[in-house]
Amino acid sequence: MSSHNHDTNDTTHYYEGDQSKLYSGIMSHHDDIKSPESKKQLKRITKILVLLSIITIVEVAFGLLFSYTMPRAILNTIFLVLTLLKAGYIVAVFMHLGDEVKSFIWIVLIPLVLFIWFIIAFLADGDFWLWMNNSAQLK
Amino acid sequence: MAHSTAATVETKPWGGGRSPFNVSYGKMMMWFFLLSDAFTFGAFLISYGTKRFFSAVWPDPNHVFHAFPFAGHMDLPLVFVSLMTFILIASSVTMVLAVHAGHYGDRDGVIKWMLWTIVGGICFLACQAWEWTHLAHLTGGLWGTFTDINTDPAMYTGFYDTNSEAFKAANPAELTEASHNFFNFFFTITGFHGFHVLSGVGFLILILVNTVNGTYHNRGHYEMVEKVGLYWHFVDLVWVFVFTCFYLL
Question: Rounded to 5 degrees, what are φ and ψ at A102?
Fold first, then answer.
């Protein structure tokens, strides 16, 4: 790091202040909250909120209307897909992960994708136990 | 190699002296903490799923969660929990607006939106408290309940879909065990989540006080609001999954 003259009373370089200014390229700091680009970001936020609400309403409607009529496997797949969609929008837009550098996005997403494998494995395990116990032969 | 943006120093990403991800240390560590917490919650939900798949019969959420405050004994399946989900998502939106205000240095905006987020969090906690109290008092569910195989079936048949094959084929041992497990998991997982909401509200209040005092204005940026916002969104995300696993699947 290049050295620069510090004001002897300037302790801000001990805090993350400098770091934030260094890496503010992605979410750089502006001044006017009424500017057009600010309004554009606000519109995007509202759009995602409406989308999330619609997805939730659709999920609950499916849960109420089709709980006893649709095959459980199809219903559950629908729920899981919609939930993952909601999660994706919240992480990408609300948490601004979509605005970060690609390598950082991978760092967060890859463990979560592997986690899905973990989920499937253990649910299959529970299912197997049930089958095993139900089909046990008594000598 | 990640291309650097206009505001960063033009060096190799992994050459040292800079963050390879163009993100500050504090924010990156918050993301890593959220990943670890996601695994913890995930482990809880997976154990719930495994236990549930392992059981011959399991309570039906539509039958367990059908109450609404001040609605007496009306049968309103999933309505109250949908309200709770909406409250938490709304508080997530107000948090995004607070972060947005922070990017533009609008201190009054940050204060306003953080206050709304805190209100949303407290409303959610109040709703969860009502749900817990209602379940514990009216249905008799809590940790360690339904352990007696000779419990009067009228106490627990209300939790099940009595028209299902699984229920008709089940014996009292399986029904009491499933009821016992269901409530254990429900109170543990929603309790652990509620604890996160509570601590989240605590952190939000702390950051709000700092904002009012001008700490972040003097620092020159509102990144702390962003970081606590990440935590709050995580809490919302976990609820989305808990809601799906317990009430929908």
Answer: -55, -45
The domain in which residue B228 lies consists of: 42-248
Q: Which residues fall within 8 angstroms of residue B177, CB to CB, at 6 or more apart?
A: B55, B146
CB contact under 8 A, B24 and A15: no
How far, in Å, CA of B72 to CA of B140, rounded? Answer: 17
Q: Do B42 and A119 touch (CB under 8 A)?
A: yes
Q: Taken in order B87, B93, B96, B97, is the CA torsion positive or negative? A: negative
- Distance between B229 CA and the closest CA of chain A, angstroms: 8
| Predicted confidence pLDDT, tens digits, chain B (249 residues) | 444 444 444 578 888 777 888 888 889 999 999 999 999 999 999 899 888 888 888 988 888 887 788 877 777 777 888 889 889 989 999 999 999 999 888 999 999 999 999 999 999 999 999 999 988 887 777 787 888 888 788 888 888 888 888 888 888 888 888 989 999 999 999 999 999 999 999 999 999 999 999 998 888 889 999 999 999 999 999 998 898 888 877
Torsion of CA B142, B146, B148, B151, to 10 degrees: 120
According to DSSP, residue A138 is labeled P
Residue B241 lies in a domain: yes
Residue B22 lies in a domain: no
Q: What is the largest CA-CA distance in chain A?
A: 86
Look at chain B and report how many structural domains it folds into.
1
Smallest CA–CA separation between A137 and chain B, in Å? 18
CATH of the domain at B74: 1.20.120.80
Q: How far is B104 from chain A (nearest CA, A)?
A: 5
pTM: 0.84
* Closest to A27 measured CA to CA, from A102, A76, A98, A131: A98
Q: Are B110 and B225 in contact (CB under 8 A)?
A: yes
Contact B86 A53 (CB under 8 A): yes
- For residue B7, give the chain A residue with the closest CA: A25
Interface pTM, i.e. ipTM = 0.76
Residue B24 in any domain: the answer is: no
